[in-house]
Design a protein that fits this description.
Elements lengths: L4 H19 L5 H17 L14 E4 L5 H11 L6 H5 L29 H20 L8 E6 H5 L1 H12 L5 E7 L2 E2 L2 E2 L8 H7 L3 E6 L3 H13 L4 E6 L22 H11 L10 H12 L1 H12 L5 H9 L7 H11 L6 H15 L3 E5 L3 H4 L18 E3 L4 H14 L3 E7 L3 H13 L5 E5 L17 H6 L5 E3 L4 H13 L5 E5 L21 E4 L5 E7 L3 H14 L3 E6 L3 H5 L3 H8 L5 E5 L8 H4 L4 E3 L10 H7 L4 H12 L1
Parallel strand pairs: 1-2, 2-3, 3-7, 6-7, 8-9, 8-10, 10-11, 11-13, 12-13, 15-16, 15-17, 17-18
Antiparallel strand pairs: 4-5, 14-16
This protein binds thiamine diphosphate (TPP) and magnesium ion.
The site of thiamine diphosphate (TPP) has 19 residues, from helix 2, helix 6 and strand 4.
Length: about 650
């Protein structure tokens, strides 16, 4: 028998419903509804090679509707990726399988980005599409010439972040971004008209997108719509009218297929309705062969590309950037040596700008930006001219007031490869970025968050703008490195560490206010161990003061006062608690002192969690309420973060 596209799509449907049934959990409806669209995409449009999943010029495919993970697992298996195997699919959602509940970029090579939190895959894809255009502008069509395809559901389009992503993509004219909308009119609660009456195509058109519709179960119509999308110079939304759970005799078209196994009876009925007589997990030879032939098509395209790469004048630099390797240029050491000669009294946001100036001059892979706070975040440098629709070679993105969209786009750039993204806003608005920062951390993405105005030190803007819980709450996030440098030299050291870190994100918390220089020795990067002794006790050591950022100079002043009273005090600067936690027991114990020593923390944010270092018997100075609107000096006095407020409490405690 000849294998039809219908047969091929039904193989996806069967794998999806059977795997969900075997796991007794998962989402069959979306893969069954989008199987026809996906079959056309993987047949005639997507550029991919299962033998070389990480080939640099492949198209990027993002399953933004991550709950439909069985769609991508089926496609990867059927087209011939080494993983997932059929056994992996049989073990869907089990610990042993890379077929996790939602697709994870670190579990399967064919998964470009972790998805599941609705809307974020789409917004991440915008960053991938930016990365493609930028690298194309730098390296040319021979090396970089691919598209970004997204499958998104009603939920992805309904999320707030979608507004940011669509606005940014339209503004930047990302014509190689094509979004396949699974327009099935169903979400978990039922029909979409329960909660929305938005004219989605009108919204996209108004944002500079091209919109085309198709019957998502008519192969020719799908093909026509995808061709039109490819040809249009604007980003495209392809509204695919589909039936969720297509083929399930009593449940298709209803929310019942969204997120639960269909059940044995319904599955039997689906087999009849689809004419799929094969047992669970059996893909007939001829259908599998047809899928594998499709998957094999990309090898020649990839070989052509490799031919163009070898001998290309920029091959070495292109490969270096795509691998994420840093040049060994010593630029940071030169910059630090300059600082050491005459240590400046800068706000750390200013110190960050100056460090970035040195870094962006030698690292062309760095693309910066800010969510409309460029002059406050100090994120722009002379090397980073704007990246615009008319000039993608630029390296600075005006993200507009789109913090979440910015953070997700940064993930997309980092995951695409070839770019190290950094982006800024006020630290307090990490709340707006947080969902994407969490995905940076889960995905081991090298995204660098430049978060300024890091405490009540920002002054008069008041409690809405003053971070309290933010620094600690970011420290709670696994795999996020949070840096809070204390002066210009520490800032440069922290930047060097953030850039060097290839397997996860970093956040720099930086001050608005000027800070006195504390260091002049730059022979080793003292921030590398996360915390170090800035000042050793002169009298007999009774106290260790641990502080971060702007409070390190305060701790130095407190220590001076204690010494004057005959009490020896070390000052430990702790720019990165995560790095400190990774040090040996010996190092940590030696630095923080034994049980006889009073440990004191000073940080202008919540004291919650500082017991970790001070112990219950230590003292913790911080702010456990919201801030207030006033000039900076009044605020530090009001919240008791002054030498005169702190020193007597320490003296009283040690008796
Ligand atoms: C940010 C976020 N909120 C909520 C959920 C839980 N959730 C998963 S799927 C879904 C409904 C999505 O509807 P749609 O995108 O139309 O998917 P379909 O039911 O059509 O498969 C919800 C609310 C989620 N994964 N992410
Ligand atoms: Mg839906």
């Amino acid at each position: 028998m000849t294998v039809t596209e219908q047969n091929m799509a039904n193989a996806i449907r069967a794998l999806a419903m059977d795997a969900v049934q075997a796991a007794n959990s998962g989402h069959p409806g979306m893969p069954m509804g989008m199987a026809d669209v996906a079959t056309v995409l993987f047949s005639d449009f997507l550029k991919y090679d299962p033998q070389a999943p990480k080939w640099a010029d492949r198209d990027r495919f993002v399953l933004s509707a991550g709950h439909g993970s069985m769609l991508i697992y089926s496609l990867l298996h059927l087209t011939g990726y080494a993983r997932p195997t059929l056994q992996d699919i049989k073990d869907f959602r089990q610990l042993s399988s890379p077929c996790a509940g939602h697709p994870e970029n670190f579990k399967l090579e064919g998964v470009e980005t972790t998805t599941g939190p609705l809307g974020q895959g789409f917004a991440t894809a915008v960053g991938m599409a930016v990365a493609e255009r930028h690298l194309n502008a730098v390296f040319g069509d021979d090396l970089v010439d691919h598209k970004t395809w997204v499958v998104a559901g009603d939920g992805c389009l309904m999320e707030g972040i979608n507004h940011e992503a669509v606005g940014l993509a339209g503004h930047l004219g990302l014509g190689r971004l094509n979004v396949l909308w699974d327009n099935n009119g169903i979400t978990i609660d039922g029909k979409t008209d329960l909660s929305t009456s938005e004219d989605i195509p009108a919204r996209y058109r108004a944002s500079g997108w091209h919109v085309v519709s198709c019957d998502g179960h008519d192969f020719d119509d799908i093909r026509k719509a995808l061709s039109e999308a490819e040809a249009d110079p604007r980003p495209s939304l392809i509204a695919c009218k589909t039936i969720i759970g297509f083929g399930a005799p009593t449940k298709q078209g209803t929310a019942a297929t969204h997120g639960a196994p269909l059940g044995d009876e319904e599955i039997a009925g689906t087999r009849v309705a689809l004419g799929w007589e094969h047992k669970p997990f059996i893909i007939p030879e001829d259908i599998l062969t047809s899928w594998r032939q499709l998957g094999a098509k990309g090898a020649a395209v990839r070989a052509d590309w490799e031919g163009r790469l070898s001998g290309h004048a920029q091959a070495g630099e292109f490969q270096r950037r795509m691998a994420g390797d840093l040049p060994d240029d010593g630029a940071m050491q030169d910059y630090l040596a300059g600082l050491a000669k005459d240590p400046p009294k800068w706000a750390t946001r200013k110190a960050s700008e100056m460090a970035l100036g040195a870094i962006t001059a030698v690292l062309p892979e760095m693309i910066g930006g800010s969510a409309d706070l460029t002059g406050s975040n100090n994120t722009k440098t002379p090397s980073t001219k704007p990246l615009t629709k008319d000039d993608y070679s630029g390296r600075y993105i005006y993200y507009g007031i789109r913090e979440f969209g910015m953070a997700a786009a940064m993930n997309g750039m980092a995951l695409h490869g070839g770019i190290i993204p950094y982006g800024g806003t006020f630290l307090v608005f990490t709340d707006y970025c947080r969902g994407a920062m969490r995905l940076s951390a889960i995905q081991n993405a090298r995204a660098i968050y430049v978060m300024t105005h890091d405490s009540i030190g920002l002054g008069e803007d008041g409690p809405t703008h003053q971070p309290i819980e933010h620094i600690q709450s970011l420290r709670l996030m696994p795999n996020m490195h949070v840096y809070r440098p204390a002066d210009a030299i520490e800032t440069a050291e922290c930047w060097a560490l953030a850039i060097k870190r290839s397997d996860g994100p970093s956040t720099l918390a930086l001050t608005r206010q000027g800070l006195p220089p504390l260091r002049s020795d730059v022979s080793t990067n003292l921030c590398e161990k996360g915390a170090y002794r800035l000042k050793a006790a002169e009298s007999e050591k009774r106290v260790v003061l641990v502080a971060t950022g702007s409070e390190v100079s305060l701790a130095m002043d407190v220590a001076a006062k204690l010494e004057a009273a005959g009490v020896g005090a070390d000052v430990v600067s702790m720019p990165c608690a995560e790095l400190f936690d990774g040090q040996s027991d010996d190092y940590r114990n030696e630095l923080l002192g034994g049980d006889a020593i009073l440990r004191v923390s000073i940080e202008a944010g919540t004291t919650f969690g500082w017991e970790r270092y001070t112990g219950l018997n230590g003292l913790r100075f911080g702010i456990d309420s919201f801030g207030a609107s006033a000039p900076i000096d009044d605020l530090f006095a009001h919240f008791g973060l002054t030498v005169d407020a702190i020193t007597p409490q320490i003296l009283k405690k040690i008796g």
